[in-house]
Design brief:
- The chain has one domain (about 5-85).
- It is built from five helices and no strands.
- It has helices at about 5-15, 25-40, 45, 50-60, 65-85.
């Protein structure tokens, strides 16, 4: 159980950090699709509990992530851009 605890904490922290003002479905899709990649490539940033650090790390490593993560991240980016344009 000791080995799994840090991973659970990282996953819960990442889930909280990925929340922002974009539509919930886009947030959920990125969280689901990218969590394994975030844990793999950005575990140090997860430990900081800083959303911007995690996001920057994911963007930096996006070409290494799974196709599902890339697709979800693109959809979230597009949702953010559309929200910005409508404001």
């Amino acid at each position: 159980m000791r080995v799994k605890m840090p991973r659970i904490v990282l996953i819960l922290g990442a889930s909280a950090l990925l929340l922002s003002a974009v539509p919930v479905s886009a947030q959920d899709n990125v969280r689901e699709a990218c969590m394994p990649d975030i844990v793999k490539y950005c575990s140090a940033e997860l430990g900081t509990f800083n959303r911007e650090n995690v996001r920057a790390c994911l963007i930096k490593n996006i070409k290494k992530t799974s196709p599902a993560c890339q697709k979800a991240a693109k959809a979230r980016r597009d949702a953010e851009r559309a929200k910005t344009r409508s404001n």
